[in-house]
């Protein structure tokens, strides 16, 4: 039921009193928990006393009391405009987590670090560069382009790359991107769907005067816009492209043409198609289809000459006109009745008219100008190599009979037979009708014999013609004979008591009671019309005019088949398959569907889900009729498409509706949005959503509920909130229903925090929510492991006298016990028991579970006795919980008692209880008891035998009883129980615990040979055990088997094998194995190569170490500091200091601390290579993040001394001494000597001051002073 709006002032006090009495009973029954319950009691004593509005759950006892004092409120005073935006602002910090961080506060180096997992080599070099060069940006872009096909690069990474690209352009006025950079950037943006950014890039390139080959960029941009349905943007880019002299690719033209035809942009489609033909390229089948669609668009909209010109252009370009092109142009000329121009078209194109085109021409000529001109035109068509078929002659025969030219009709029949064509049955029917019309009824049977002889049996239409013709000729004996023939052929049912003549009248549509055949007995005034075989005068007693009209109409209608009538009849009988066949046949007869028949077909196909694709083809083939359908039919079409999942087709129909200013129903928008949502196409969903919002869409209640669930599933939370607001604005009661649905879906989808904000938002509007709303939120918090929030919500509920739903109470009670809030758990159970009188066992079970989880077995026993005292039959689950609880505290005596109870009560022990019991017994050394228990379990049911044996095997191994496993395996073999994956995995685990390497390897090999998939742990265990035992060959064999099956090699497996190979000196083989892992994509995410990096560095395979480090970064794992230390030390050893600096800088940016050894080694290496200033800067960075050493200072001081940079040397020595390091005497004296021997005599005074300063900080000045004083 829908939540209701009620007033709660009077009922609150009654409920307050009721809860006080109830809580007092709890306190008396649980005196040990008085302190906690007092706080709970306080919550219940703080009830609101003011009148509030509430929507409640009518099914709950508490809410039913509220409804007894229902006070209706004026809802017009409640305003919900802006409600959604308010909720969005209040939970923006939750919603923004999906969108990622803003780039505003990020530096270029931060951005580079963010993309370093894609291009680690390039990124680490650029992190320490203050200003990017165009070549640097190109390096990043080429790295991205290289990785684009190997790994999936998310849109956020491309957005970051685009930000770096822009920042680089802004850092310096003289900066100018390389043309290649612009091309690659545009390509990556297009691949990520960032089309607007590509346009901005192109305009920037143009303003900067950068010249590049932008053909591919423009083509991809047009295809991107066209694929997204943004035709206007695609056309703008196309115009820009042509304006710059670029010719679009054929593929680009095809994509653009498809959307232009869909949108009926005739002139643009003609122009783009012309451009496509200008390229003289060999067109593929899809491109030819696009060309044919343009021809159809032009011809169906009266632009025959443009279509003809396009066909001529195609012919010049080497593209022969297809039958579809010829048919469309011929159809267009036929509609204009311009047959002479049509002949010139065939002559100019040097192509023979197709049969469909020729038949269309014949039909139109006969219809408009008669058979005489049609016959002459046929000769001209034959001169153009037209080859008429049987339907061509049938058309001419039919129209000749219609005009009463039987001689001509028989001439066409003769001509057809001379060409060895089999006459169509319609030709025979037309000739028979013609004979009857001309009174030549005696020859009708000759035609029947002829057609039967040529293998064409008469159909129901033929017999109706015979009936009508003989009735017209008053040959009623022949009529009776014909009726009997129809019965023999199964066309009608004729009983022995039924008059054949009456049956004939009924078949012809005459009333048998109104048409009577009478004998003329009047001598004076004769009414005789005809004589029977005996010479009796007979006449028809009926309305002769109506009679004649009816039989003549049957004859006329049979001369030329009217497919519209035939299709309509089939639609009336819902024979849509037959109707579809008639539609296809109709084309061969040159006839066109009428709008009414077309509409009936579309409606019929839409109502039959098996014919939806037929509707799509029908609308594509006959767009001119589709554009005339009324809005009711088109709404039906869109909804039918969406039900079948054809969302794109539905969008196209909706676009055409809106172009014609037709009204799309709410149900239509809902179907499109729901279809897009279910399909998972977020782009289509957003597009449909925006269109629906612009057209003031408001879904029905049930549709809205389903849509809210779908939106939450797709994480379109803002849209769901806006939908809720619309419902609340237009219909508050319905909106409150949607609120409940949205709240439930948010909590079920992991967005409970947002649900909480939404709940608070409604509370601020003056509503008091029922327990269902709060229960949804509590349930959601528990699902998301936010237990403290769940407990706070529980406190709020209890403070409002709201009892959680049963399932929520059952969920909360064990959680309260787990955090030690036993009193609250007991109180909640008692409260819920009063609310749920019929289902108390689950609440007791929840409390038992909670106590068992915490090992509080005494309380479990109390609860269990309470259950028995109340006469409640404990469920098997409760016994199971007791067993597991006592197993947890290792109370074997109680376990035996409970097990005896199980046996006495003939209860089945659960698998989980068996697992706990077996574990406890084996840990306590009670092996026989464990085996007896296993036998007991095996006797309960055969279905779980293998599971029971697997559990026993696992715990036998785990408790050191591996010697008994062989007996268990023998039992399995005796019972013919085949090992499954679990069995083998447990055996591998057990044998590995026993250090039985050969058995673990054998089990794994057996498992693989039986095509069973081992667990990752089993693979790790066996391979690492083999490597540890020195059996590297077997480990490599297993690795090859894994490679063949495409199984991922995790960190432990790769590390074990590669370290084994390295230990044996097979470095090349180790590298090959690692390379294969990369090539075959067998590396898992979060791979760890830290140990291997160090090993390869120790063996001077520095490049391989760097490769492994890069792979870790690409897989989402940051190597530890020791890996970076090893790499940096290796580079220092090889004197590759620039690379060492790259890694050192990256290390600091990743908040990793270099070791003292690495820092010292790097400082010494820089000094040895004369890069003293860099060494000093490095020392400064070391002081910021770690500890320096005396050797670092001395190395730099000595280097400055060698470079004769005495000032720098003395300054650094001063800093060194401030840090507590004393320089050695040699360094001191050398520096003093250099200063004394300085050749700069003019600065002698200054040098003396410097020398005094140096002696002062060294301790010499003080000594001199003391000596002077002593002297």
From TrEMBL:
PPR repeats lie at residues 214-248, 389-423, 424-458, 459-493, 630-664, 770-804, 840-874, 980-1014, 1050-1084, 1085-1119, 1120-1154. InterPro entries: PPR-containing_protein, PPR_rpt. PANTHER family: MEMBRANE-ASSOCIATED SALT-INDUCIBLE PROTEIN-LIKE (PTHR47939), OS03G0168400 PROTEIN (PTHR47939:SF6). This is Pentatricopeptide repeat-containing protein. It comes from Carya illinoinensis (Pecan).
């Amino acid at each position: 039921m829908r939540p209701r709006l009620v007033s709660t002032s009077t009922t609150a006090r009654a409920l307050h009193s009721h809860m006080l009495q109830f809580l007092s009973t709890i306190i008396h029954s649980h005196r040990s928990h008085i302190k906690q319950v007092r706080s709970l009691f306080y919550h219940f004593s703080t009830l609101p006393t003011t009148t509030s509005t509430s929507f409640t759950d009518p099914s709950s006892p508490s809410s039913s009391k509220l409804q007894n004092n229902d006070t209706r409120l004026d809802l017009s005073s409640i305003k919900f405009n802006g409600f959604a935006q308010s909720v969005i602002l209040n939970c923006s910090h939750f919603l923004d987590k999906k969108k990622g961080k803003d780039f505003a506060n990020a530096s270029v180096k931060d951005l580079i670090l963010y993309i370093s997992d894609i291009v680690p080599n390039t990124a680490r070099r650029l992190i320490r560069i203050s200003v990017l060069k165009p070549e640097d940006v190109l390096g990043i872009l080429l790295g991205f382009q290289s990785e684009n096909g190997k790994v999936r690069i998310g849109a956020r990474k491309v957005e970051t790359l685009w930000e770096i690209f822009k920042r680089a352009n802004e850092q310096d006025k003289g900066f100018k991107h390389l043309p290649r950079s612009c091309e690659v950037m545009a390509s990556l943006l297009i691949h990520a769907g960032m089309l607007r950014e590509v346009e901005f890039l192109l305009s920037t390139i143009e303003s900067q005067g950068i010249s590049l080959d932008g053909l591919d960029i423009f083509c991809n941009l047009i295809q991107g816009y066209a694929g997204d349905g943004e035709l206007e943007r695609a056309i703008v880019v196309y115009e820009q492209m042509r304006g710059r002299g670029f010719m679009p690719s054929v593929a680009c033209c095809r994509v653009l043409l498809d959307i232009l035809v869909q949108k009926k942009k005739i002139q643009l489609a003609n122009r783009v198609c012309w451009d496509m033909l200008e390229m003289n390229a060999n067109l593929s089948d899809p491109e030819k289809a696009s060309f044919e669609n343009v021809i159809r668009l032009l011809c169906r909209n009266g632009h025959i000459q443009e279509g003809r010109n396009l066909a001529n252009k195609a012919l010049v370009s080497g593209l022969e006109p297809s039958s579809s092109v010829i048919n469309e142009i011929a159809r267009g000329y036929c509609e204009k009745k311009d047959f002479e121009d049509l002949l010139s078209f065939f002559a100019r194109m040097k192509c023979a008219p197709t049969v469909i085109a020729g038949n269309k021409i014949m039909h139109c000529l006969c219809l408009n100008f008669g058979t005489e001109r049609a016959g002459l035109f046929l000769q001209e068509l034959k001169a153009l190599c037209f080859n008429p078929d049987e339907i061509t002659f049938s058309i001419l025969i039919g129209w000749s009979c219609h005009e009463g030219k039987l001689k001509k009709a028989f001439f066409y029949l003769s001509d057809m037979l001379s060409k060895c064509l089999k006459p169509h049955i319609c030709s025979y029917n037309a000739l028979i009708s013609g004979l009857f019309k001309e009174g030549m009824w005696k020859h009708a049977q000759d035609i029947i014999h002829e057609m039967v002889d040529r293998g064409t049996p008469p159909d129901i239409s033929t017999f109706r013609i015979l009936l009508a013709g003989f009735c017209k000729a008053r040959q009623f004996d022949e009529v009776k004979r014909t009726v009997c023939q129809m019965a023999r052929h199964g066309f009608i049912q004729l009983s022995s008591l039924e008059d054949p003549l009456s049956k004939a009248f009924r078949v012809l549509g005459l009333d048998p009671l109104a048409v009577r055949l009478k004998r003329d007995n009047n001598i004076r005034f004769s009414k005789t019309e005809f004589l029977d075989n005996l010479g009796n005068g007979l006449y028809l007693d009926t309305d002769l005019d109506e009679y004649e009209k009816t039989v003549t109409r049957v004859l006329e209608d049979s001369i030329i088949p009217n497919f519209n009538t035939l299709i309509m009849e089939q639609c009336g009988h819902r024979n849509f398959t037959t109707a579809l066949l008639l539609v296809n046949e109709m084309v061969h007869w040159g006839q066109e569907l009428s709008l009414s028949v077309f509409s009936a077909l579309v409606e019929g196909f839409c109502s039959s889900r098996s014919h939806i694709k037929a509707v799509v083809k029908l609308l594509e083939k006959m767009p001119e009729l589709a554009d005339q359908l009324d809005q009711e039919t088109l709404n039906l079409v869109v909804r039918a498409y969406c039900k079948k999942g054809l969302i794109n087709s539905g969008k196209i129909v909706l676009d055409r509706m809106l172009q014609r200013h037709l009204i799309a129903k709410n149900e239509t928008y809902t179907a499109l949005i729901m279809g897009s949502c279910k399909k998972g196409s977020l782009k289509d969903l957003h597009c449909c959503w925006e269109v629906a919002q612009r057209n003031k869409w408001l879904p029905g209640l049930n549709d809205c509920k389903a849509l809210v669930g779908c939106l939450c599933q797709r994480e379109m939370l803002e849209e769901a909130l806006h939908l809720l607001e619309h419902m609340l604005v237009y219909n508050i009661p319905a909106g409150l229903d949607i609120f409940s649905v949205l709240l439930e879906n948010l909590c079920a989808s992991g967005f409970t925090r947002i649900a909480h904000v939404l709940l608070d938002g409604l509370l601020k509007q003056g509503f008091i929510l029922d327990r269902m709303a709060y229960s949804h939120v509590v349930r959601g918090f528990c699902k998301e492991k936010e237990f403290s929030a769940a407990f706070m919500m529980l406190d709020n509920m209890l403070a409002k006298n709201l009892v959680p739903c049963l399932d929520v109470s059952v969920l909360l009670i064990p959680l309260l016990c787990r955090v030690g809030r036993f009193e609250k758990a007991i109180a909640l159970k008692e409260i819920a028991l009063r609310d749920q009188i019929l289902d108390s066992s689950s609440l007791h079970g929840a409390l038992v579970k909670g106590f068992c989880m915490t090992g509080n077995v005494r309380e479990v026993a109390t609860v269990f006795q309470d259950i028995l005292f109340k006469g409640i039959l404990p469920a098997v689950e409760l016994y199971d919980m007791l067993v597991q609880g006592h197993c947890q505290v290792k109370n074997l005596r109680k376990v035996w008692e409970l097990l005896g109870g199980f046996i006495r009560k003939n209860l089945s022990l659960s698998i989980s209880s068996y697992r706990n019991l077996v574990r406890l017994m084996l840990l306590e050394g009670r092996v026989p008891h464990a085996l007896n228990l296993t036998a007991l379990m095996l006797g309960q049911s055969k279905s779980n035998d293998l599971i029971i044996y697997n559990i026993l095997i696992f715990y036998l191994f785990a408790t050191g009883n591996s010697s008994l496993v062989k007996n268990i395996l023998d039992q399995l073999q005796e019972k013919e129980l085949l090992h499954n994956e679990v069995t083998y995995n447990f055996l591998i685990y057990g044998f590995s615990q026993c250090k039985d390497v050969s058995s673990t390897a054998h089990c794994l090999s057996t498992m693989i040979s039986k095509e069973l998939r081992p667990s990752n742990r089993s693979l790790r265990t066996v391979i690492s055990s083999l490597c540890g035992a020195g059996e590297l060959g077997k480990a490599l064999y297993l690795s090859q088997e894994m490679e063949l099956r495409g199984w991922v090699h995790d960190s432990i497996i790769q590390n074990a094998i590669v370290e084994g190979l390295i230990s044996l000196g097979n470095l090349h083989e180790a590298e090959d194995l690692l390379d294969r892992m990369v090539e075959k994509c067998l590396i898992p995410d979060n791979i760890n190569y830290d140990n291997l990096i160090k090993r390869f560095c120790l063996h001077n395979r520095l490049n391989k170490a760097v490769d492994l480090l890069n792979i870790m970064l690409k897989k989402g794992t940051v190597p530890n500091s020791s890996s970076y230390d090893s790499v940096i030390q290796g580079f220092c050893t090889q004197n590759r200091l620039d690379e060492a600096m790259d890694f050192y800088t990256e290390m600091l940016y990743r908040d990793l601390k270099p070791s003292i050894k690495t820092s010292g080694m790097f400082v010494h290496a820089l000094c040895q290579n004369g890069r003293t200033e860099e060494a000093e800067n490095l020392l400064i960075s070391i002081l910021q993040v770690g500890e320096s050493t005396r050797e670092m200072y001395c190395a730099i001081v000595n280097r400055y001394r060698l470079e004769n940079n005495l000032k720098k040397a003395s300054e650094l020595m001063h800093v060194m001494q401030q840090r507590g390091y004393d320089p050695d005497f040699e360094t001191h004296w050398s520096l003093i000597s250099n200063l004394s021997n300085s050749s700069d005599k003019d600065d002698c005074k200054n040098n003396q001051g410097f020398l005094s300063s140096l002696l002062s900080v060294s301790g010499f000045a003080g000594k001199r002073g003391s000596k002077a004083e002593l002297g």
